[in-house]
Amino acid sequence: MARVAIIYGSSEGHTARLAERMAEVMAAAGHTPEVAAAAKAPAPDGYDALVVASSIHVGHYHQAVRRYLRDHLPALAAMPHAFVSVSLSEASPGASGAETVAGYLHTLREETGFEPARAVSFGGALAFRRYGVLTRLMLRRIAAHGGLATDTSTNHDYTDWAAVDAFAASFASELERAEAPGTPAR
Q1: Complete domains list, the chain, with CATH
Q2: Is the CB of residue 69 less than 8 Å from the CB of residue 52?
Q3: Which candidate in 65, 89, 139, 170 could, as Cys together with 9 as Cys, close a disulfide (CB 3.0–4.6 Å)?
Q4: Backbone angles phi, psi at 149, to 5 degrees
């Protein structure tokens, strides 16, 4: 089975939770996942596959994730990999959220040269109870504009966890097929 690095960038911890969840699913499928924050992540050498997950804040993926992708571009291109976006834009009702996320991914490609073999996007979270007063007010306004919950007395999770599980299981299955004798490697 494959040794899979799951590298993430997270500001409030939601993307870290998502990375851990993907690791649980891949481990259950018999793979050996290792989760690490991008700022402290090991080089992809020694891994069979890689998943990079990043939340989007103020229109950009995490700087540490962008740096990791630039620094390891040749290694990533040579192995099975996927990129996971986590954002409130994805959670917003209507097609404009998906279009916004596609724009963020396009900018990431331009900034890093990284061309993901597979890219998926999941809704993020509004952790109102963890934010300071100014951040809470700013995000409440953004949430209202995006058609999301504005009740700041509680946190709101917009992640479709079944979809996260399905993605991780699908990626694990792809790795199994790639390891099967007679299957061409990527």
Answers
A1: 3-124+159-179 (3.40.50.360), 126-158 (no CATH)
A2: yes
A3: 65
A4: -60, 145
